[in-house]
Each structure stands twice: as structure tokens, then as C-alpha cells.
């Protein structure tokens, strides 16, 4: 499919054969039928108007102005500077910057015009002469012909015949070439038009809210909006009850005012009264209630209230708001190992909470995530306990087992990217290999694999300390905390001598058996710690369950004295509670990241993380009907669990 998009001209017979093959995939189970439907739709569009796929890809990736196709895309590469060596970050930044410098709007528009005319006219198109003609045009004339070609190609999508599409582009070709008729110059055959590199930006992930800020700036550039700080205030007034100062470039102020309006027209204050409510106006007529389907769509998109509308004049019904379209696509590529994906899970939950309070990004932005594993050549300080690269790249390993094409094209980059850091800078500029691979992955990786995000509630030894709430994606590790307090030191030594190493734990959960039924399980044992894995070691285990491994210390007595042995208990569960019976503290580390370690912990609760929009609507339903315990109304149509989608080429192949 990637070759067909870039091909200068596709023979009708070949296109028909591929289209029939994709239709036969529809009879197979997922993901084959999903891929077949996606590619069959693309081929049907390409057969009706040759060059459409190439044209749309370049226009959206380069953010070229076009009224006929006003879509924009951008690739955001995020790397954690504390997890990757500085040399790798520098090489990645240099590679992406070199790819952007080589692109220009003029060159991209010339590529679109050349490819569209060549795809429609075939051998009759004088490609070298056309390219030379485009390079000689002034910028305004080039943009004029570019808009003409885009309008002609997009107009053919409405169902017009192939012959009419060819005739329209042939007229544009003759008008562009002027007096030199087609076919007079010696033809050199079809020539491939290069596909420009997409718009890629490289970011060192240093702030927790950096992902959200970059997405907002993508929708509202600084040239059209405020600074990021002011923008955050404008987008989320519900978080700040105090009056928000107006933004200098917006010229508006937002206030949080307690309403005492009775809802009756005569109760409104007179215009001359110096009251804050005098600026409000009553809308005429009866307000139409939205349909349940509209409410479900809004809540599934992120919940919360719709963006506020300016009040209309009294007695004048408001104009119906046009439905929002997702004209922007953000492709976020995460470079690193499982630890950077743990940060992504935190940022994704924070973003979903913002959208639940006030939906803004979701109806306007198509957000997609990608992951490229990177294994540093030298072990980093934060990875001292995980020297095996496979232990730090469990997510990439699972994606590689699920999708062989991901394994052969993306997983192999984990060892190649560190080698690029040792190459001379001139070689990176002349051969942007990494940029090409990232562009191929972002363009063709359209099938998501969803991972369950788990929430954890941490209880501390100090009763005055509030419990902490966090999330993890890959694993949770608990270990006995070293260095007890002076008051407990003598008692701990004496007890350890009698009972052995470790601590007494009480574990309660609902165990998932082979039949996928849940069975109550309660354990009281002495253990040195436990490990919870959220990524299954094999595809048969399935997603959504935790694989818990508890190391139990068993004491045995014989003639030689007491001895201790370790026995590992392993089971699967969806939620679990752990308590330290003797209140001895232990540590909790999330997603193999030593920066996310909690100390002085005496208990924890782990369960699947819920979608914030579901929680918001569930709370509203409970307030209205406290006796209802099951999901009723709109709640039962909402996704309950928070799933993090990471794109691959084919999804999970059984």
C-alpha cells in the first residue's frame, strides 16, 4: 500500500487485482477484515481519482492551505532525557531538523501537482518539462495551479466518472504548460515523484504537562492565540474558581459567578442597575434538548459540558452550532523503554481528566500513539537493576509478538538508534534513515493495540500522611524496605531471627482461573515482596489481567536447626489488596522507574483504572438515583476502563 501511494501511475488491472484481494480479506476474522476494509476503501478512492492518497498525505503532513482538504497532521517525537544518553538525543534532534530544513512549501506544492497530473495522464505527461515549468513559476502562480489541481482531484471524489477526472486534469495540464503541446518533447517515461518528509518535531520530555501543551499549541498556534500559560487559563476555567484575568491577546475576561437567577424574565435587574448580571441576556423560545445519541457521543469523546457559547440577543433563537470535525491529527511517537510509556500513561490519564471536565481536544484532534524501543548502549543510572534489554522493553516485545511486521521494521531500531549517535553529523544529514522509518511507521501504522492502565492507591506508615494515587502500565514491584527505625531495630532483628527474612503480608484478591471466572483468594504469609506484571508473557494470557508473583518464605526445622526456603506463588487477578500485618514498611516501584518509588508503605490497592468520563457520568447518575447500583442510562454506553492505544501495522494477529 505504501508503494501504491507513491507510484506515479497504477495500471487499472493491477489496482483491480489488489482491490479484489482486499475484499476477500473481509471474510476473515480481525484484524484481517479490518485491514482489508481500510485498504479497500483507499483503493476505491484511488481508482476513482488517481493521485488522491498522495495528495491528501502531502497536504495534511505539510499543513498546506487548501479549502478543499483542510486537514493537518504532525508527528511529535518525545524522549525522556533522563532515560536516554545525551548523544542519542542530540542525534535524533539533528536528524529530524535536517529533514525539516530540506522541505519547503513550494517544493511540496510542485510534488502534488506533478504527481496528480502524472497519475491521471500517464505516459502523455512530460514530467521533466512539467517540473521545469513549475520551478519557473512565481510563488503566486504556483499556488494558483496547486489549488486548481487540488480542487479537481477532490471534486472527483463525489462520484464523477474517471474520464471526467482525466479531462479536468488534462485541461489544467495544457493551461499550465502553455503553448507547448503534450507529446512534442521526447518522453522519458513515468518518473516517481518523491514523497516529502512529514512535519516532525522533536521534544525532550522535561515537564509533566508538556504533552498537553504541545497538543493545544498544535490546534491553536501562538500566532493565533495566547501564550501557553494564558491558553491554559482560557481552556480550563472550571479548575480555578477565582476570576481569571483577561488574556492580553484575547481581550476577554472570564468570571466564576454564583448564579442567583430564578429563571423568570421579570426577575432580571433593570439595565441601569450596576449589577454583574445585567450583562446577561435571556434567550428566547424553548431550548431544544439534545438527543440521547448526541449526549452519548459527547461523553464518549471525553465527557463534561460542551464549550460555552456567547449569549444571543433576547427573542432571537440561537443558530445551530456546526458539528466539530477532526481536522487535526497528532501522531505522538515515544522513544525509549517501558519507563517512558509509564510516563505516557500518567500524561494520558491527566489529559482524559481535563477532557472530562471540559471537552476541548477530543472533538477536534485525532490523537494516536506510537512506540519505538530504544536500548542504550551503556546502562543508565536509572536502569541499574534491569540490565537485560528485554526486561526494559516488555511492551515492544509484546507488540513484536503480536505483529510480525512491527517486529521486523520497528523493534530492530532499538539497537540501531544508539549506533546512529556515533555516526558523523554529515552522515545523518545526507541519509535521514531514522526519519524515513519513523515516517513510514506513523503513516502506515493505523491498527491500535490497547493496554489496560492500572491505578494504585498507596497507604503510608504515617497515619497523618494522605494516601497517594498513581497509575502504572507494565509492572509494580514491592520489596522490604531497608533501614528500619531505631525503635524497631531490636525488635526487627529478633523477629527476623525467629521468622526469617521478609515481612508478614495479608493479600486479598479475586483470582482469575482458566475458565476466566473469578474466585475469592485470601493469603496470609511471610514474603520478601511481590511483583505484578500487566503485560502478558504470551498472547494466550490476554490483556487486562495482572500476573502476580509472591515470594513466600517457608521455615523448616530439622536436627541441624532452622532453615528457610523461598517458594514463588503465581496467579492472575484483576484487582488486589496488600497489607503489612506487622506494619513493617516496604517500598513500591512503578513501571521499573526508580523515580517513581514510594517508601514507608504499609498497604496498597490495585485495580483497573477507570475512564474519567465514565466516573463523571456515574457520579451524576448516583446523585440523581442513589438507589441505583448498576450502570443505567448513558453510563452503560460509555467505556469503563482506561485503555492506552499504541499503533502497530496489523494489530494483534492471533
UniProtKB/TrEMBL annotation:
GO cellular component entries: phosphatidylinositol 3-kinase complex, class IB
Region (Disordered): 176-195, 264-321
Gene Ontology annotations of biological process type: G protein-coupled receptor signaling pathway
Residue ranges, compositional bias (Basic and acidic residues): 264-278
Record-level Gene Ontology MF annotations: 1-phosphatidylinositol-3-kinase regulator activity
Basic residues bias spans: 279-290
Top-level taxon of the source organism: Eukaryota
InterPro entries: PIK3R5/6 (IPR019522)
Protein name: Phosphoinositide-3-kinase regulatory subunit 6
Lineage: Eukaryota, Metazoa, Chordata, Craniata, Vertebrata
